[in-house]
Amino acid sequence: MKSTPTPALVLRAVDFGESDRILHLLLPDAGRVTAIAKGARRSRRRFSGALDLFQYLKVQIDRRRRGAMARLDQAVLLHNFGALRVDPSRFALGCYLLELLDRLAPEGGARADTRRLFGFALASLELISERPVDGCLRTLLELRALDALGLRPEFSRCVRCGRPAVAAGAAALFHVADGGTVCASCTREGDGCLRVHAGTLRALEQGMRFDLSQLHRLVLPQELLSEARLLIGRFERFHVGVELRSRRFLEQRVPIAPPAAHRGAPREKPIYSPPPRPPGQESR
Ligand SMILES: [Zn+2]
Asked: Mind listing the pLDDT tens digit for each residue in 221-241?
């Protein structure tokens, strides 16, 4: 019996043994699947191209071997997102998104969720193939990737009481570990919330709603972008739980200036409000 053909996106590819290749694939109906392509480096007939990062393929996978790694029987290249390979910023962001998906995409899961995730993966690679990658697009795409992976920050309601958390024009408090905004009456001593402009949260909220193909149209002013970067960066580090290998490369290729001072605060610590010391503890 032949294995079923399915679209697939290559998230990771490593050589194995003399001529095999192990692939981490994202499938619309199955999430992340690890498969071995036997003799991949010898057979261009069964595996078009090199089976490499960013490739969008139509594959035949045998996943019925109980307890064993799935076997990739055949692959036809549908699209290789070649534009990502000729521009370092695009390549860096593309690698980062693939690594994020490779780390966090579920193996299996509800079909609607895995299809949504697959759709996000293709649409985001399409977007950065076509548009120049800057700090704004990078930040918004990271946010959308987290959302697609089920890690959606809450920007408008208080995560503790559910009431609208931010008054127009006011500063807002974001609790990284709790994953969203906290209203003034729910703030507790030692929370260590990030203090950001309400406008930053509104812009991020908008970034969640934009059609992905139009995301490049949303442009944040530098001050809000710096705050957004800090917020998304910390949220991601906390909730992803591992430092992704491609992050340093991305920071080099698509840097974002740290938040500038505002409201007279010193330049080094404009936004983050450290938790107050417990009573009786002397500062050193
Ligand atoms: Zn509250």
From this structure: 999 999 999 999 999 999 998
Class of domain 90-253: mainly alpha
Q: Report domain extents, the chain.
A: 5-80, 90-253
Q: Are strands 171-175 and 70-79 parallel, antiparallel or unpaired?
A: unpaired
How many Å lie between the centroid of ligand 1 and the Cα of residue 239? 21
CA of 260 to the centre of ligand 1 (A): 28
Q: What is this structure's pTM? A: 0.86
Measured in Å, residue 185 CA sits from the centre of ligand 1 at 6
Ligand 1 centre from 187 Cα, in Å?
7
| SS percent in the chain: helix, strand, coil, step 5 | 35, 20, 40
Give percent of the chain above pLDDT 70: 88
Which pLDDT belongs to residue 137? 96
CATH superfamily of 5-80: Nucleic acid-binding proteins (2.40.50.140)
Report the distance separating Cα 61 and Cα 38, nearest Å. Answer: 12
Q: What is the mean pLDDT of residues 138-157?
A: 95
Distance 184 CA to ligand 1 centre (A): 7
